[in-house]
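Exercise 7.
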Amino acid sequence: MSAVLIAVALSLVSAVAYAAAAVAQERLAARSPGAGTLRLLGSGAWWGSVGLNASAALLHVVALRYGPLTVVQPLGALTLVAAVPMGARMAGRRVSGTEWKGTALTLLGLGAILVTASGPAPDDVLSVPEALAVAGATAALIGVLSRPGARPGLRHATASGLASGVASALTQTVTVSATDRTGPVLSVQVVGVALLVAAFAAGGLLLSQTAYRGGLGGPLAMVTLANPLAAAVIGLSLLGERLQGGPAGVLLALAGAGLASWGVVLLSRAAPAAAPVDDDHPVAAVLALEPGSAAAEPALMPRPWPHDPGHLTPATR
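Solution. The predicted structure, written as tokens, is:
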């Protein structure tokens, strides 16, 4: 089996695990919209979502060892495919036509980006100065996106996607450096970049939890879009990866980005009707709150953003 096929297979399984984790996070955010970090740390449901995210991340790390960023990262869009129907099932409703259309456009756009990206197993890595520069610029951008203001869900989701995309790029540097057998496994470069990976991965997880307070579809679609774009910028500008097809390939990638953005807008405007949550579902142990807190209050729909009374978007990762 070729390295790219291995990367694709691992990415598929990783996407399903990420989807389940996203649904768990959205349910937790919807039923406890004001929960702080300390309360989340005491929630078994939140730790269940962390476990799912960790499993998905491990598969993703291995995939990054076999495939370039421009191939592996767009496959994360499959999280959206899995999570939209999964989230609807857990909410006891059908997927709306708008959600299907938004999902299809997002995947079509990211698919166009994927068509233009290919390459052998990665061998280039970020130097320590490059890694620090990328980390500093990303942290500053995340700070701007996390400021108080309108539409916090989509802004926090964008910040989460950027953090995850950068974490993946840094992870590839760690895995390639640690397995190339030309130097010590625990070099200063490997250890330092690994610490940056941990920081961005944790930040991305917490930002996504905050983003899902506004629903699942729009924020998750934004994460799905921002993640591969951030990784692609790093891969193309610093790791020597290239888009296929020359100028035509660039145009196709830009068109794909436009379609995906349209899909994100549709998902962010979707407003499915409220439906009771089935806490007796077979996977409720992972995708629901603890029995005590779940029984204490009825299921809550995600809160609308202040300036958009009709904006409710439970849908996927």
